[in-house]
Amino acid sequence: MATLLRRHTGSPGHGGSLQRLRASLVGVFLLLNICVPLRAQTVGPTFKGFYMEDTCTIKDQNIVIDFGQTNDASFTGIEGPTKPIAIAATCPAGWRATYSLNASADADNANAIKNSAANGATGFGILIRSKDLSTTIPPNRSNSSRLSLDDGLQATLIRTKSVGSEGNINATATLTVAYE
């Protein structure tokens, strides 16, 4: 830039103008360098969520169901004692749930939980059903029936073989409740 300004062909006495022109051009050059914008990237944030007016609270709990001491007199057909499964849930009235049961299935009745007691009784399993006993919750399969959370579930000790042997009955399962 300074080289271009040296060849001034104007009249004498305009030397001050040349100096002012140089100072102005240097100022514009500096101003242009300062005002050049940095590279920018546009970012589009995504916002997600879900609003629910009401919700359920289901307490994570260990539930122990004790069938007590039973014998042949406790059975009608293949069904023995039935006990409620008390799930501590606080939900708005009318909410429905689907249940899934993770447990070892009995080899003779895939709808029942296997008795896993060491040296335990043979020929027995545990059936999980809706409170009205109309819907079975089989182990390791999703139940597509939507049941009322108000109704609850029942556990029934059943015979899985026509002849069984005496001993302890013990089984463990994880019950998952999906509600809406």
UniProtKB/TrEMBL annotation:
It holds the Pfam family Fimbrial. The keyword Ribosomal protein does not apply. Keywords: Membrane, Transmembrane, Transmembrane helix. SUPFAM superfamilies: Bacterial adhesins. Gene3D superfamilies: Fimbrial-type adhesion domain. The chain crosses the membrane at residues 21-40. Residues 51-179 form the Fimbrial-type adhesion domain. It comes from the Bacteria. InterPro entries: Adhesion_dom_fimbrial, Adhesion_dom_fimbrial_sf, Adhesion_dom_sf, Bact_Fimbrial_Adh_Pro. This is Fimbrial protein. It comes from Paraherbaspirillum soli.
